[in-house]
Structures are given as structure tokens and as C-alpha cells.
Amino acid sequence: MRQYHKLVRDRIPEIIEADGKSFICETLSDEDYISLLDRKLNEELAEYQESKSLEELADLLEVMQAVVKARGWTLEELEKVRADKAAKRGGFEKKILLKEVLEG
């Protein structure tokens, strides 16, 4: 037996079952779901930082999309906020490293 206490993708239980194993899981409350999504964001970011793989970056995006929906926002709202910030403050394409700001 191996114990977990982590949020998993929706099809993981059926994959485990197809592998001939049994499992115990539960459906989370909205509050617990958001809390574990936030934890999952950190986990996926750490995995991307270690591997630098497109697959891990896709996992991070999947969790981000789930967070947006769980918090009652839409992907369109997220994109609008992103686009507004980019219009006002720019993106990251110019590769600028700010080293210091001199006052006066």
C-alpha cells in the first residue's frame, strides 16, 4: 500500500483501476479543492523548474486553468487581465534585466 494526499487528474482513478489496483479517494469541498490546487501549482512549478520540459509546462497551465475556474473566473477574464497588463507595462520579449534605479 502506498499513501498519497494529493490532488490528481480526473482520469487517474480509472487508470489505477485498469491497472488492476484498488484505491480510496474522496471528492473535495470547494475550499479544500482550491487549497490543494494552490499546492498543486507549486508542485507543478517545481517540476517544471527541475525538468524545463514542455510537458511539465503544460501541466502547470492545466492547473492554472483549473484555479481560474475554481475561483469563479473565466479564461477570457484571465486573458483580458494579462493583455491589459501587457499593454500597460509590456511583456518580457525584450529580455530586460533591471539592475538598479537611481533616485533624483
Explain this structure.
This protein is mostly helical and 104 residues long. The protein has a domain at 30-89. 59% of the residues lie in helices and 0% in strands. Helix 2 packs antiparallel against helix 3. The chain is elongated, with a radius of gyration of 19 Å. The model has no long low-confidence stretch (mean pLDDT 97).
Beta strand count: 0
Please indicate the percent range of residues in DSSP E strands (runs of 2 or more).
under 5%
Unreliable residue stretches? none
Task: Determine the fraction of residues in helical runs and give it as a percent range.
Answer: 55-70%
Structural class: mainly alpha
Report the order of strands and helices. HHHH
Instruction: Please tell me how large the radius of gyration is.
Output: 19 Å
Count of discrete alpha- or pi-helical segments spanning 4 or more residues: 4
Shape, please?
elongated
Cα separation of the termini = 65 Å
Q: Let me know the average pLDDT.
A: 97
Main beta-sheet strand count, sense and barrel state:
none
Q: What can be said about this structure in brief?
A:
With 104 residues, this protein is an all-alpha fold. The chain has a domain at 30-89.
Question: Would you spell out the secondary-structure blueprint of this structure?
Answer:
Elements: H1 12-18, H2 30-51, H3 54-70, H4 75-89
Helix pairs in contact: 2-3
Characteristic key phrases:
single chain; mainly alpha; 4 helices; elongated; 104 residues
